[in-house]
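[Meeting: bench + compute handoff]

Bench side (C.D.) handed over the final construct sequence. Compute side (W.E.) agreed to return the predicted structure before the next meeting so the bench team could plan truncations. Sequence as handed over:
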Amino acid sequence: TTALLRCVQQMLDDQQLLPSLNELSRKRSTTARFESMLSRSDSMWDLFELCTRIAPTDATTMIVGETGTGKELMARAVHRRSRRQGRFVAANCASVPPELINSELFGHEKGAFTGADRAKKGLVMHADGGTLFLDEIGDMPAEGQQSLLRMLQERRIRPVGSLVEAEVDVRVVAATNVPLDQAVREGRFREDLFYRLDVIRMNVPPLRERPEDILFLFGHFTRQLSRHYGTDALSYSDRFIEALTQYEWPGNVRQLQNLSERLVLSRPGRLLTARDFAKLRHSGGASQAPPKAVDHKASAPQRVDTSLTLEANVSTAIASLEQEYLTAVLRQSSGVIGAAAKRAGISRRTLLRKLKAYGIDKDAFKPE
């Protein structure tokens, strides 16, 4: 009987979803657009269908994907296709200091701690009736993890310094660029919270696993940007297309979009070659073979050895430019890791890992 009821309920659900699924099929065959995302990849359209099916529910959702794959865009699509009338509110867990995480999420009363000169409503209350997107959830401090677990269990929060609890109606969508299983095993993330968040998991594939999207997205970005800047359209040689599609894109769609903008501004009307790709001054992705440390006080661009293979040329150029970029970000942030990570659009942990790989000493940029 239970199985029969589930079957009937599934049929009813499918009937309600039928218009949305039909619309999805039409858009795939015409515009290849889902919400604000474009793709011709089967794996992405499977994900778009999953988004359409789970969006009307209140199920807590975990979005897993590398940096630059569009996790926040997917979270916004879940919210837009839900029945929730409240706002979409985003928080980057990696950018909030541990001592302020509860205040940021749940608010505080006046005088709750030093510097709290007035009461503040937290992000959870701002998202009441809507969706709270928690990016870089794996970097959430332990204090925040405990409070978030309690909120998910009881649907109630207590602002810092308050004795009064408040009911909340918030759907939580969390995102991480690495699976949390390892963090749970290492004791850095609560297992009970992990299972509360991991009700629905959406795995966003990296760009290198959907090569059909590389040239498609590059063409879209360059046409759009050429119109925006009023520049001549780009044209490409076969070798350029070969380099573009064979590169692994460690920064994914975000890196591809940044590269497109750089080319539109620096090479309008030119026939692009593999040499152009290898010499790009782009800093949006981790290299696979970081170069040796250099003198970061005088970060002059390094020359790429043209005797190397195309793949090595590209890897070395991107690595060099990323190293220069991180150096500039650290200099502008006076060596403060939190501020530098925010400028670079990456988590503190990712930034520290990159600095270690490149042999960059953050203390060298602090004011004397």
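W.E. noted at the follow-up: Residues 1-12, 281-315 have pLDDT under 50 and may be disordered. C.D. will use this when planning the next construct.
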